[in-house]
Amino acid sequence: MGLLLALFLVLAPSAEATTSPSPAPSGSGSSQFQNTISGFLRNNGQGIGGVKINVKGNGFEGSTTSADNGSWRISVPTQGSYEVGIDESTLPSGVKLAEGQENPRTVTFNQTSNVSTIFAFGAGITVHQQSFISTLLNRLVAGLSFGLLLALSAVGLSLIFGTTGLTNFAHGEMVTLGAVVVFALSSIGAPFWLAIIVGLLAGAVFGYVQDAFLWKPLRRRGTGLVPMMIVSIGLALAARYVILFFFGGATQQLPGSQVQDIDLGPVSVSPLNLQSLVISAVVIGLIGFLLLKTRLGKATRAVADNPALAAASGIDVDRVIRLVWVTGGLLAALGGILWAYYRPGVTFNMGQQILLMIFAGVTLGGLGTVFGALVGSIVVGIFVELTTVFGVTADLKYVGALVIMILVLLFRPQGILGRRERVG
Asked: Within a 13 Å sphere around the CA of 239, how many CA atoms are in the beta-carbon half?
C-alpha cells in the first residue's frame, strides 16, 4: 500500500509548498495558522483591491487587505465561529455594499480548515434574506446530494460486510485515497479526466490488494471476525499516516471547486452538488441493476446470503469476494472525490471524518443489505442537513444522525430493510 501511495503522492507538491491559485493578500494573520477564512470582492465583474477586512472571534482579532483581483485571505488560530466585516471607509469611491448585505456577518468552520464568504456590491442590487421554506428546500436538496454521496461508500461497505462479515474500519482510507490521487495528478498538470480515472482505479487496486494479500490469507487461516476487525483498525491507522506523511496536514482544493451557486426557482444550489447528485444516482442505479439482473450479481447475493451453500452450488466464492472488494474500493474512491467537492477540500483524514456517517447509513438501513445502505444513507444525509434549519450548529449536526441511528436500532435492531433473525 505504501508503494501505491508513494507513486502518486511523491509526485505532488507537499501541502506546505502548494500555493493558492490567487495571490495571497498582505495583512496580519495571513499565514501564521492553518485555518483560513477567504473570499473575493468583486463589483461588476472587476476585483476590488485595497479594501480592509476585519476578523474577530474566539479571542482572536486580525485584519487583511484585498489584493488587486479582489481576493483576500486571513488565517485564524482555531476553528469555530468568527465575525467577518468590511471596513466600508476603505471601499473605492462609488462602490457600495448591496442593499441588505450583512456586514459584519458570522462564518463557521464545518469539517474543513478553510471557509469562504462572499460580499455583494453594486447599486440597484438588493440582497434578500431567504425565507424558511426556501432554506428548507435548499437543505433538502443538499441533504439528498449528501445522502447519495454517502450511499456510494456505504453500498461498497455493505457489500463487503454481506459477503465476508467483516466490519472494515479501513474503508474511510479507501475514500481518502480517491481524492488524494486526483489532487496529486492534477497538481502535476495531468488532465482532469485522466486524474479521475486513475483515482478510481487506485481505489479498485487498493481493494484488490487488501483482499489478495491480507483478508484472503486471514480467511483461509480461520481468523475470527473480531481479530480481523482489529486488523482493519490497524490498517486504517497505518494508511492514514502514510497519506499524512506524503500529502501533509493542510486542506487542498481540487480543480474547479470554487463555483457560484445557481438559482432553480426557490432553490439555490451549487452546480457541483447537482453533478454529485446525478452521478451518485446513476452509479447506484447501475449497481442495483447489476445485482438484480446479472448472473454475477445473483452470485454475489447468493454468497452474501449463504457462502457455504453458494460454494456447494458451484459458485467461486473467493472470486466473488475479490470482485466485491474491487467494486467497494472503486465506489469508495468515487465517493471520496465527490466528498472533496462537497466539503470542499482534500485532507489526509477526510475518510475518517465521514466514516461514522457511512456506518450510520449501513446500520440504519440494515447490515449487509445494499438497498438498505442506500435508504439509510439518504435518511442520514437529509437529517444531517435539516438539523441546521432548526437551530443546530454546524459543528453538532453530525451528532443528530448518530442519535437517530441509536434510536432506530433500539426499536428495530435489524435496521429499516434488514431481516429479523432469531438468536439462540
From this structure: 28
The predicted structure's pLDDT at residue 34: 66
Distance between CA atoms of residues 263 and 94, nearest Å: 28
Phi, psi of 122 (to 5 degrees): 130, 140
Residues 309 and 27: their CA atoms lie apart, in Å, by: 69
> How many Cβ atoms are within 10 Å of 257's Cβ, its own excluded?
16
**What is the distance between the alpha carbons of residues 186 and 195, in angstroms, rounded to a whole number?**
6
CA distance linking residue 157 with residue 327, whole number of Å: 10
Q: Are 239 and 351 in contact (CB under 8 A)?
A: no
- Asked if residue 205 lies in contact with residue 330, where contact means CB atoms within 8 angstroms, the answer is no
Question: How would you label 176-205 residue by residue, b for 16+ Cβ within 10 Å and e otherwise?
Answer: bbbbbbbbbbbbeeeeeeebbebbbebbbb
pLDDT level of residue 329 (50, 70, 90 thresholds): very high
Within 8 A by CB and 6+ apart from 256, the residues are 192, 272
239 vs 232: CA distance, rounded Å: 10
Amino acid at 374: L
> From CA 330, how far away is CA 54, in angstroms rounded?
44
pTM, 2 dp = 0.72
Please say whether the dihedral angle defined by the alpha carbons of residues 232, 233, 235 and 240, taken in this order, is positive or negative. Answer: positive
Show the cell assigned to 182: 486526483
111 and 344 Cβ atoms separated by less than 8 Å:
no
Q: Could you give the residue ranges of the DSSP H alpha helices within 306-418?
A: 307-312, 317-342, 350-365, 370-387, 397-411
* 171-206 tens-digit pLDDT: 999 999 999 999 999 999 899 999 999 999 999 999
Angle between helices 132-164 and 271-293 (to 10 degrees): 30
Q: Which residue type is seen at 375?
A: V
Residue whose C-alpha cell is 470582492: 41
Of 321, 416, 320, 317, the closest CA to residue 371 belongs to: 416
Residue 252 scores a pLDDT above 50 = yes
C-alpha cell at 106: 458570522
Q: % helix / strand / coil in the chain, to the nearest 5? A: 55, 15, 30
Least confident of 4-18, 72-86, 271-285, 375-389: 4-18
| Reported confidence tier of residue 389, pLDDT bands at 50, 70, 90 | confident
What is the Cα–Cα distance from 188 to 206, expressed in whole angstroms? 22
